[in-house]
Write a structure and sequence with these properties.
By secondary structure, this protein is an alpha/beta fold. The chain is built from 15 helices and 19 strands. The chain has two domains: 249 residues, 3-Layer(aba) Sandwich (Rossmann fold); 162 residues, Rossmann fold (3-Layer(aba) Sandwich). It has a seven-stranded mixed sheet, with helices on both faces. Strands 4-5-3-6-7-8 form a six-stranded mixed sheet. A four-stranded mixed sheet has the order 1-14-15-2. Helix 9 runs parallel beside helix 10.
Length: 451
């Protein structure tokens, strides 16, 4: 898959009638900060904003553009949320065309990040969203980290206000289901219909026709992957074990031993968790079973890898393949050095690329829908902004080629790879890690027949 040498600063490809009102009014759209801006009158701005059901977000000539980051940022958080926030910060840094540790500007306005913890929890995700949507000058937000923080929570709150929420890490299929989805929600992360299918196929190889145990905590992310994995496994010898989010190693060990006593030893154990349950499960199963341990990208972090190494346990992990990213000249020569310099370490997860892309989709949509007045003030119609995001076509980002569907999935497809510890593609993994299995899938091929 092709990658840009540098982030594409030309217009994204848009289609349809989304910007028709602006065109009919003779309002020009600006592609980048160097392009000449078409100035519109206060009367024209008022007319467009009144026509938009959700109104406009408005900025004074020197007003900052607010970009939300609703991510898992607490002290006990999985490193994925921190890594994603860094991706947003670096996107803001690069608005001026260089990584210098100074926030850049977009259409002459400073971009400012507003960060709130999503807690990887439905209730906290909703509370965090309610805080962010009331922030003055909030254009859009990158988030959430966890699917459970978005489903029937943050995504709903943002859509009620007509504010875009673009997630770099939500993967649960329900979030972009044609019936269940929220109008102002999109994601740059791949849909777990893809990952679950690939992991199920690989799990079938590991199990070799034998038994499998899947462990779930009942969250949206975990349940979705477990269901897709079980379907791909194509085995009737699959046993489901339910644990609680606050179960430690002892509780998980007890639940696992109870399952073994009922059905026998498994060939493979699949536990697609996030946060502390990842670490607790690796600790619980180390030395307890000869089964192959398999997890997914929610556990793809340095802490889990260290625990697997310390316990002498091999753990297989699935996630979007990052090998193309690592060979991208811009990523290797500019982005990665900037990441290391600003944060003192290599990326601890892989989703900074998806967050960087999510932020840039926001900035590009802002450039294409901003109504600029003579005094430098700006108004952005909420619905036009949403349609600008949803009409993105063939945008070469760090995380892949992005084409946003009407349901909010912006990843056309994904190459999912399985890595065996310690050869994980993160901080603490071996140099030049090679996957043990890779499989590409397109979302269109898996959702054929959906509206």
């Amino acid at each position: 898959m092709e990658r840009l040498v540098k982030p594409d600063r030309k217009w994204l490809i848009v289609t349809g009638v989304v910007l028709a009102a602006l065109v009919l009014l003779g309002i020009g759209l600006k592609a980048c900060d160097d392009a000449p801006a078409s100035v519109v009158s206060a009367e024209e701005v008022e007319e467009v904003c009144e026509e938009d059901f959700y109104g406009c977000v408005e900025y004074l000539p020197d007003g900052p553009i607010g970009i939300g980051a609703l991510l898992w940022l607490s002290a006990s958080a999985d490193p994925v949320g921190i890594d994603s926030r860094r991706g947003v910060e670096l996107a803001i840094d690069y608005l001026d065309g260089e990584f210098d540790g100074v926030a850049g500007t977009v259409l002459g306005h400073e971009a400012r990040i507003e960060a709130v913890d999503d807690g990887c929890d439905q209730e906290q995700g909703r509370r965090g969203a309610e805080v962010l949507v009331e922030t003055e000058g909030l254009l859009a937000a990158v988030g959430t980290t966890c699917s459970s923080s978005a489903q029937n929570a943050a995504a709903e709150v943002f859509s009620e206000k007509g504010i875009m929420l673009i997630s770099p890490t939500n993967t649960a299929p329900e979030l972009t289901d044609p019936v269940l989805r929220e109008e102002f929600y999109a994601r740059t992360a791949p849909n777990d219909l893809i990952q679950g299918t690939v992991v199920g196929t690989f799990g079938r190889r590991l199990a070799g026709g034998g038994r499998a145990i899947v462990i779930t905590d009942g969250t949206t992310y975990t349940d979705s992957l477990v269901e897709s994995f079980s379907a791909g496994l194509q085995s009737r010898k699959t046993q489901r074990v339910v644990v609680r989010p606050d179960d430690g190693p002892d509780g998980i060990r007890t639940a696992f031993e109870r399952a073994v006593s009922r059905g026998g030893d498994p060939e493979v154990v699949y536990f697609p968790f996030t946060g502390e349950l990842c670490s607790a499960t690796v600790e619980a199963l180390a030395g307890l079973t000869d089964a192959k341990l398999l997890t997914s990208d929610g556990c793809l972090n340095a802490e889990v890898l260290d625990l697997a190494r310390a316990g002498g346990t091999e753990v297989y992990v699935s996630g979007p393949d990052v090998r193309d990213l690592e060979t991208n000249p811009f990523y290797g020569s500019e982005f990665l050095p900037a990441y290391r310099e600003q944060y003192g370490e290599k990326p601890t997860a892989i989703f900074h690329a998806h967050a960087f892309d999510a932020a840039n989709l926001i900035f590009d949509a802002f450039r294409r829908t901003a109504l600029i007045q003579e005094d430098g003030s700006i108004a952005v119609p909420r619905t036009a902004f949403r349609e600008a995001v949803f009409s993105v076509t063939a945008y070469d980002g760090f995380s892949g080629r992005l084409t946003c569907t009407v349901n909010g999935d912006c990843q056309e497809g994904s190459l999912i790879s399985i890595y065996r510890s310690p050869a994980w593609p993160i901080e603490g993994g071996t140099a030049n890690p090679k996957p043990v299995y890779s499989q590409a899938e397109t979302l269109a091929g898996l959702t054929e027949g959906q509206d």
